[in-house]
């Protein structure tokens, strides 16, 4: 489920070439604060994926509601003790 969620979110990624050939910038619309920049497009994609993974883990740890992506939802289910 986590892998499918990450793959679906990465399909929404938007990349731009920075001015003066200073590399690439990428973000994922709807995922506030998830962005990356790197010298090559491939490095930018990898950094963006890592930023997304960290964002997901941090958000779930804090109990945040994460965006639904292509019908996929990630949430922590608390069981009654």
Describe this entry's structure for a reader.
37% of the residues lie in helices and 15% in strands. With 81 residues, it is of the alpha+beta class. Strands 1-2-3 form a three-stranded antiparallel β-sheet, with helices on one face. The model has no long low-confidence stretch (mean pLDDT 94).
Count of individual domains: 1
Q: Which structural category fits the helices and strands? A: alpha+beta
Helix/strand order: HEEEH
> How would you describe the shape?
elongated
Give a short overview.
The protein is about 35% helix and about 15% strand. The protein is of the alpha+beta class and about 80 residues long.
List the helices and strands and how they pair.
Elements lengths: L1 H9 L3 E4 L6 E4 L7 E4 L2 H21 L20
Antiparallel strand pairs: 1-2, 2-3
Looking at this protein, list some descriptive labels:
3-stranded antiparallel β-sheet; elongated; alpha+beta; 37% helix; 15% strand
């Amino acid at each position: 489920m986590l892998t499918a969620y990450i793959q679906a979110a990465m399909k929404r990624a938007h990349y731009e070439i920075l001015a003066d050939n200073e590399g690439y910038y990428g973000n994922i619309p709807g995922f506030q604060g998830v962005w990356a920049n790197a010298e090559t497009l491939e490095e930018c994609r990898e950094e963006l994926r890592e930023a997304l993974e960290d964002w997901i883990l941090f958000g779930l740890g804090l109990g945040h509601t994460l965006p639904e992506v292509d019908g996929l939802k990630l949430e922590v289910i608390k069981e009654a003790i």
